[in-house]
């Protein structure tokens, strides 16, 4: 619907004089146009409505700066476009801030709390008690692999056994240890 520019210009003058009905007319006459413009840009009803409200708020606060050489609708769209750009900048800066906070929160504190140290110590003593229940050659396999952190190749050299035997014995030792742990729980 094409709006009569003379009526718009008259309502703008009335609004500048403080007429609430003139503000209402301008709002009602241009709301759908600004809202549709924002809805196309944001693809979100809530954001489009929020920016449309901000557009009219800013336009009415700055009505004294409106130049009637230009169409009022063009002025509103320009304000709305700039507010959308500001909105996107703010959203991006918030995302960047959240991303930085996430990175900071992901920094691991490698120092255990006293509670963590106690739990670890208790778990380790329980684990060692279970390992001591295994036959000596299985204890040795667990010790070399998990406490001395040897590779299969290093274990095979230390034990002077083929690597396949080392893998099988370690697998058997882990299964026996797992069974012992499950039985005690």
TrEMBL record:
<dbReference type="GO" id="GO:0003677">
    <property type="term" value="F:DNA binding"/>
</dbReference>
<protein>
    <submittedName>
        <fullName>RNA polymerase sigma-70 factor (ECF subfamily)</fullName>
    </submittedName>
</protein>
<dbReference type="InterPro" id="IPR014284">
    <property type="entry name" value="RNA_pol_sigma-70_dom"/>
</dbReference>
<comment type="similarity">
    <text>Belongs to the sigma-70 factor family. ECF subfamily.</text>
</comment>
<dbReference type="Pfam" id="PF04542">
    <property type="entry name" value="Sigma70_r2"/>
</dbReference>
<dbReference type="InterPro" id="IPR013325">
    <property type="entry name" value="RNA_pol_sigma_r2"/>
</dbReference>
<dbReference type="InterPro" id="IPR036388">
    <property type="entry name" value="WH-like_DNA-bd_sf"/>
</dbReference>
<feature type="domain" description="RNA polymerase sigma-70 region 2">
    <location>
        <begin position="27"/>
        <end position="92"/>
    </location>
</feature>
<dbReference type="InterPro" id="IPR013324">
    <property type="entry name" value="RNA_pol_sigma_r3/r4-like"/>
</dbReference>
<dbReference type="GO" id="GO:0016987">
    <property type="term" value="F:sigma factor activity"/>
</dbReference>
<keyword id="KW-0805">Transcription regulation</keyword>
<feature type="domain" description="RNA polymerase sigma factor 70 region 4 type 2">
    <location>
        <begin position="126"/>
        <end position="177"/>
    </location>
</feature>
<dbReference type="Pfam" id="PF08281">
    <property type="entry name" value="Sigma70_r4_2"/>
</dbReference>
<keyword id="KW-0731">Sigma factor</keyword>
<dbReference type="InterPro" id="IPR013249">
    <property type="entry name" value="RNA_pol_sigma70_r4_t2"/>
</dbReference>
<keyword id="KW-0804">Transcription</keyword>
<dbReference type="GO" id="GO:0006352">
    <property type="term" value="P:DNA-templated transcription initiation"/>
</dbReference>
<dbReference type="InterPro" id="IPR007627">
    <property type="entry name" value="RNA_pol_sigma70_r2"/>
</dbReference>
<dbReference type="InterPro" id="IPR039425">
    <property type="entry name" value="RNA_pol_sigma-70-like"/>
</dbReference>
